[in-house]
Model the fold of this input.
Amino acid sequence: MSKLLAIVPAYNEADAIASTVADLRANAPGWDVVVVDDGSTDATARHATAAGADVLRMPFNLGIGGAVQAGYLYAKEGGYDFAVQVDGDGQHDAAQIDDLLRHLHVHQGEVNMVTGSRFLVGDEEHGYKSSASRRLGIKIFGFILSRVTKRTVTDPTSGFRMCDRRAIELFANDYPHDYPEVEAVLMVHAHRLASAEIPVTMRERQGGVSSINASRSIFYMTKVLLAIFVGLLRARPVVDVGDPAAVTAQRGV
Done:
């Protein structure tokens, strides 16, 4: 039987973390749950523990990339076969985790990471609603990644993702920081792994505040675009399953 882990990065999510963990325990009962408390100053860790999750407490705020990588290190050391990222703000529906896992099982050996895309559910009732500026940014990132990876990428900023063991090994050893979701798609491709998307619905935030507000949108877009172009040029470490660390590097994607 496969070992399954849900990784929940959380920073000051005291209002939503208990319901997020409860959703996972009710709708994904075969999954262990670890909340990575990224230096929260509120009661996130206490509420997560009370809800029944294991909690990794970071000594200070690492940012989303550091918190997610800590979760993948936990998955790697724990011998987990599959790991799913679930935001701590309650946006992701745990009932759809089985859909992600089913896709990896059906495409075993062909797909290493599957992402839940908000934009593949296009009707007005269930389609994701967001600001025009955020949608524009997502479309630009998706356009660039689609050209680089030669597959359609519709939701490069989705944090609802599931990885198999090879992708867990990769992200435990190397993971982008700051705003990592877009770069992670590029990393998977650069390491000759494969990714895919399936449609999911997404709820409104149940609490907390997004790190990307209107005033930071331009800064966010500029920084991510620079990261993409640098990522296209840099030599990346080559990590194989079972390697304790990268031993060689190669350029180009």
